[in-house]
Amino acid sequence: MNFKKNYESIFIILWNIYFNLKAGIPINKSIKLVQDILKNKRYKSSIEIIEKDIESGHSLYEAFFKQKELYPSLMIDMIRVGEESGSLEIVLKTLCEHYKKVNRIKKKILNIMIYPIFLSVMIFLSLILFLTFILPTFVNMYDGVNAKLDNFTGFLMFLSKDISKNKIFWIVLIMLLFIIKFLFVVIVINVFKRLNIVPSLKIIRRYYELNLIYILNLISKSGQAFYNSFSILQENLASYVIKDYIKIISDNLKKGFPLSESMQNIKHISKTTLTFVQSGEQSGSLDESLDILCEITENDFNNTIDKLLGYLQPIVMIFLGIIIGGMVLMVFVPMYSYMNYV
C-alpha cells in the first residue's frame, strides 16, 4: 500500500465520476464537476490536467495513466478494462467500493506505525535535551572538585565536555543514526517486495491475502473475465507479491483450471479463502461468496492489528520508562558523587 496516495481523494473522484455518468452527464463534464469538491491541491490539479487531456481526445484511461504517480495502477488498469469492455460505469462503482475498503485498511496500518514513530521522536528529543542542557551543568559542578571519579561519572563528564565543544556534531550524529535506522527499514521492506518474500508474521500474510481478495472481488463485481483482467493487471501492479499471486492464478486459468484450484499453489493463502471461492464457483454465487470473504478477512486483519496495538502500547511505555530511568540515573549518580566531595 502506497501511503503517498490519498485514498480518500481517490474515492471522492471515483464516486463523483460514477454518479455523474449514471446521471447521463458526459465524461468531460463529470471530470470538471469533481474539481469543485476536491480539497487536496495535488489531486485537484491532476483532475484539471485530466480534464484537458479528455477534451483533447484522450480516453479516461490514458488521462489517468499520465497521472499515475497519484493514482493506483489497479484503478487505472480497471478503468482501461471498463472502457474496452463497455462496462465503465459498473467498473467505477466497484472501484468506489474497493477504495473505500482500502482507505479503512490504510488508517488501521497508520495506527500501528504511530507508536514506533512516536517512540523514535521521544527518544530523539530526550537525547537532545539531555545532551544539550543537563549534562553540561555537571562539568561546572566538578570544575572545582579535585577528586578521582568513578568510571561512570568520569565517562559522563568526558561526554559532557565533548558535547559542549561539539554540539552540532553530536546533534547531527544522532539525527544520522535515526535516518540510517529509517533507511534500513525501507531497504528491508523493498528487498522483501522485490524478492516476493512474505514474512512469517500473520499480519503481513493477511494483508497480502486481503489485497488479493479485494482484487478478485473487484473483477468479479465488474463482470469481467478473470484471465483477461489479470493479463492487463500484471503489466503495472506495484506490489511484487500480488503480481506474483496473479501470475500463478493466471497461468493456471490458462491451463483450464477453475479459480479455486488456480489459487491452491499460492503460499500463505488460507483454507478459508479457498473454501469460499470454491463454494462460490460451485453454487454460481461467486460475487456473494467474495463479499462475505472480504468481510471475514478484513475483520480478521483488523483483529490482528488490534492485538498488535495491545502488545505495542505496554512495550512502548516500558521502553520509555527505561529511557527516563536511565536519564534519571545519569543525573543522580554524578550528583551523589559530587556531594561526597563537597
UniProtKB/TrEMBL annotation:
<feature type="domain" description="Type II secretion system protein GspF">
    <location>
        <begin position="216"/>
        <end position="334"/>
    </location>
</feature>
<feature type="domain" description="Type II secretion system protein GspF">
    <location>
        <begin position="20"/>
        <end position="136"/>
    </location>
</feature>
<keyword id="KW-1003">Cell membrane</keyword>
<dbReference type="Pfam" id="PF00482">
    <property type="entry name" value="T2SSF"/>
</dbReference>
<keyword id="KW-1133">Transmembrane helix</keyword>
<feature type="transmembrane region" description="Helical">
    <location>
        <begin position="109"/>
        <end position="135"/>
    </location>
</feature>
<comment type="similarity">
    <text>Belongs to the GSP F family.</text>
</comment>
<keyword id="KW-0472">Membrane</keyword>
<dbReference type="InterPro" id="IPR042094">
    <property type="entry name" value="T2SS_GspF_sf"/>
</dbReference>
<feature type="transmembrane region" description="Helical">
    <location>
        <begin position="168"/>
        <end position="192"/>
    </location>
</feature>
<feature type="transmembrane region" description="Helical">
    <location>
        <begin position="315"/>
        <end position="339"/>
    </location>
</feature>
<dbReference type="GO" id="GO:0005886">
    <property type="term" value="C:plasma membrane"/>
</dbReference>
<dbReference type="InterPro" id="IPR018076">
    <property type="entry name" value="T2SS_GspF_dom"/>
</dbReference>
<protein>
    <submittedName>
        <fullName>Type II secretory pathway, component PulF</fullName>
    </submittedName>
</protein>
<dbReference type="InterPro" id="IPR003004">
    <property type="entry name" value="GspF/PilC"/>
</dbReference>
<keyword id="KW-0812">Transmembrane</keyword>
